[in-house]
Amino acid sequence: MLPPHTSSPAPDATVVRTGHRGAMTGLPCSVVLVALGALGVYGVIAVAAGNQRGESSIAGFAGLGLLLVMGVLGVFLFVANWANRKARILFDDTGLWVDSGKALKLVPWQGLAGVGLFWSRFGRGQRVCSLELFPNGPVDRDDPVLWTLVREEEPPRPGLPGLRYRLPFPPAQQKQVVSAVTRHVPHLWLGESERPQGHIGRPDVRGHRERGAGRRAS
What we know:
It is a single chain. By secondary structure, this protein is an alpha+beta fold. It is built from four helices and nine strands. The strands form two sheets. Strands 7-8-6-5-9 form a five-stranded mixed beta sheet, covered by helices on one side. 21% of the residues are buried.
């Protein structure tokens, strides 16, 4: 029998720092992109001021445009990685805790019909992984912490719901995640499954906004 819900993770909970690892690799890459974007801005200013040497060409303008795009992408990546740098997931006898760095949410084991691991290929020799949490009851599509994790698609086996929480995590932490789940709830473990590329998908941002607007209007 699983223990009752608690207000915080157990002191001996298994902690997987998903945001820290991503920030360690993502932030340096984003800084490089921002620096390239700064070169693009400098080039545009030089062209506008007429300080460039030689005649401008279509290829030169295209190169400046590419640098600017890379700079914008770098800014977005930097903001995203910085915001998620403290994100982590914790496992204890009560359930799985999702910590965004700003808010903490419990997904109790008692509320799940199964837990599995999906992975898909990304680039050359790379993988992306996600922990799939299949609830045995209703899902709040607009939960402040979990709504970005909600996905709906065909269940991997009969008896499981189409709605689930998809929690991405770095592939390097796969062994730690699997060990934590199988130690606490081996009866819920569904195993690992390869999925098509891009299986992580995107949250239903539009639906979330529309439902929020509908609630405010009512």
